[in-house]
Amino acid sequence: MGSEVKEAPIRVLVTGGSGLVGKAIEHVVQREGGKLEGEEWIFLSSKDANLVDAGQTRAVFEKYRPTHVIHLAAKVGGLYLHMRQNLQFLRDNIKINDNVLQTAHEFGVTKVVSCLSSCIFPDETTYPINETMIHDGPPHDSNFGYSHAKRMIDVQNRAYYRQYGRCYTAVIPTNVFGPYDNFNIENGHVLSALINKTHKAKKEGTPLNVCGSGTPRRQFIYSLDLGRLIIWALRKYKEIDPIIMSVGEEDEVSIKEAVEMIVAALDFKGTIFDTTLSDGQLKKTANNAKLRRYLPDFPFTPLKEAIRMTCDWFVENYDIART
Ligand code: NAP
Ligand code: GFB
């Protein structure tokens, strides 16, 4: 008789599927055997639905009926875009996150993994930062809009669990970079903006203008490594509390050291530091001990190698790169 229980098919909806992290997850799913039998993966861009709009969010969930969601969609940018648009970052991200989480809940999505960021931690803090410290004090002033919106994901996850038992959780990456990044010089993050600037300076025979003093320190994670880790979180990470996804503290580098890796990869000479521009947060050193307890042997791609691969990708794909 019908004693066989048929498992529902797994349909994973990735919001922000066309961005830096979304493309990395797509690569792992399609080219590294990340997709398991019986799974369907859907990668959304803002063209499929503007998630700021509740109606469009509902329509896209109605269309795909996901069982799992990786929520990456966000208004994202480097330090200087944040400084110009804190209000827009706050409003867009609050709306996107509330629409996605509530619609996921209404459609019975069993697991959501959202993306926070290590820049949302308190500015005045002790180091290294760990997962318990998110709400301990105000974030850095340069990106307070984005940070408060992102912090609310953590609050909402706990509330969905408390009220409905939902397993909605979040990962906290440090600075991400890789293929398909936003390489725009004005709005991009440091590595992508500097890769584009170096490429341009080399073509035009001008100096490379690095913003700020070069002394701030960052932990950079290669997008492909993060993609692999987020898929692990979707399958194996059962906590509601978030988890930092980062290389170790010993792998933190100064902006100046990162610049040296870029100019070496692109074979360029002639760097100037414009110290009239803001340095932003001097450091936000994060501790990856929790991740290491789960995955002691996860192999992070060495920074130098990952920067070289990103530079190669940018030069080879200049025509399609977001510049
Ligand atoms: P990204 O390259 O800028 O991609 C952003 C993605 O979000 C794109 O797919 C974009 O779609 C989509 N999106 C933006 N606004 C939308 C809207 N109103 N409706 C629907 N989709 C929208 O960003 P990313 O670096 O991959 O970031 C992914 C996640 O990681 C974000 O949650 C971000 O906060 C987090 N994160 C990033 C970093 C980093 O250094 N990049 C660090 C920590 C955390 P279109 O392509 O159609 O515009
Ligand atoms: O990646 P980034 O823009 O953001 O890096 P944050 C900023 C640091 O790089 C500052 C230096 O110390 C800048 O002075 N820098 C040097 C440059 N040259 C450049 C350049 O050409 N462009 C840029 N953008 N920076 C972000 C947050 O903080 O962290 C976001 O604003 C985001 O919220 C991200 O979540 C992870 O690391 O300072």
From TrEMBL:
Q: For this protein, what is the EC number?
A: 1.1.1.271
Main enzyme class: oxidoreductase
User: GO terms for molecular function, please?
Assistant: GDP-L-fucose synthase activity; isomerase activity
Pathway annotation: Nucleotide-sugar biosynthesis; GDP-L-fucose biosynthesis via de novo pathway; GDP-L-fucose from GDP-alpha-D-mannose: step 2/2
Q: Which InterPro entries match?
A: Epimerase_deHydtase, GDP_fucose/colitose_synth, NAD(P)-bd_dom_sf
Known function: Catalyzes the two-step NADP-dependent conversion of GDP-4-dehydro-6-deoxy-D-mannose to GDP-fucose, involving an epimerase and a reductase reaction.
PANTHER family registered for this protein in UniProt: GDP-L-FUCOSE SYNTHASE
Q: Which family does it belong to?
A: Belongs to the NAD(P)-dependent epimerase/dehydratase family. Fucose synthase subfamily.
Name of the molecule in the record = GDP-L-fucose synthase
